[in-house]
Amino acid sequence: MSETPERLRKFVWNQHNEPVQKIWDTSSLSTFLACPRYYKWTVLDGWKTTSYGTATGFGSAVHAGFEEIDKARHEGDSKDEALVRAVKLVLKDYGEDLKLSDDSARGLEAALRAVVWKAEEFWEDNLKLAHMQDGSPALEQRFEVPIGDMGHRFSGRIDKIISLDGKLYLVDVKTTKQSLSEWYFKMYMPNNQVFAYIWACREVLKLPVAGFIIDAVQTGANFTRFARSVFNVSKELIDEWYTDTLHHLQISDVYADSQYYPADFTACGNYGGCKFRETCGHPASQRYIFFE
């Protein structure tokens, strides 16, 4: 029997005793593309905010509830049985945190409403859950594979694969307070995360996915709305994403060798403003004050 190969560590340490990332995912790649300095401080140095991220926790709760409904349906449960499972899961894993939210559109009641209404409206859905070759449901498919020939690997978790009109699609659940207009869905094409997962499906899992579906949930203080949009993605686009990603990873190695990660000030105002904006506004010799 051959020996199991040693698992590659996410980070290795170079000659400067500084971390270098070797296992990448879409989160770290997107952070690097947004601003290399921000990537250095958050991913490599590990500086994190201590405040509770309501939007992140809310989205995770809704996603987990939807996934539990899918699992229950696959296992033959009735709609009511599936709802009990999903509600219990959300309360157990996210209830206490969501009670802390001061945003009525992002609290526990809104999360439970989204889960219950989703089951009521889409129990009989034309999106049919796909199955893997072993018969298991195409949910939570994790992967970690080599990418390029520079010693990097890419990892991720494909949440859900469905069948629609004889074609396979990835499904990505998004929660938002925005109106679910045509303009909302347009911001997901192109998309770094989705393209990465399509590449993984086609090249790693050998599943001929045609594209992806955004399953959007708009939440308010007293309402929940659902809408979805289907996107077909060509092989040429995914090949281009792959080439671009190899180029970005090569640049990351250059930054690691030089131990210099430049700032990109065009990203300072993204997503409500970078949490390190004030830090970058002071000379490097004074920044230790903000980190302390």
Description:
The protein has 292 residues and is α+β, with helices and mostly antiparallel strands. 42% of the residues lie in helices and 21% in strands. It has 10 helices and 9 strands. The protein has helices at 26-34, 36-44, 54-74, 79-98, 108-122, 182-186, 192-203, 235-258, 277-280, 288-291; strands at residues 11-13, 19-21, 23-24, 128-129, 139-146, 153-164, 167-176, 209-219, 224-232. Strands 3, 4, 5, 6, 7, 8 and 9 form a 7-stranded mixed beta sheet that branches. It has a two-stranded antiparallel sheet with strand order 1-2. The longest helix has 24 residues, at 235-258. It is globular. The N and C termini lie far apart (51 Å). The model is unreliable at 1-8 (pLDDT under 50).
What order do the helices and strands follow? EEEHHHHHEEEEHHEEHHH
- Gross morphology: globular
Model regions low in confidence, pLDDT < 50 over at least 5 residues: 1-8
The total of helices stands at 10
Fraction of helical residues = 40-55%
Mean pLDDT: 88
Question: What gyration radius follows from the Cα positions, in whole Å?
Answer: 21 Å
Largest sheet: 7 strands, mixed
> Strand pairing plus helix content: what structural class?
alpha+beta
Strand content: 15-25%
**How many β strands by DSSP?**
9
- For the termini, the CA-CA separation is 51 Å
List keywords for this structure.
21% strand; globular; 292 residues; 10 helices
Question: Can you give me a brief rundown of this structure?
Answer:
By secondary structure, this protein is an alpha+beta fold.
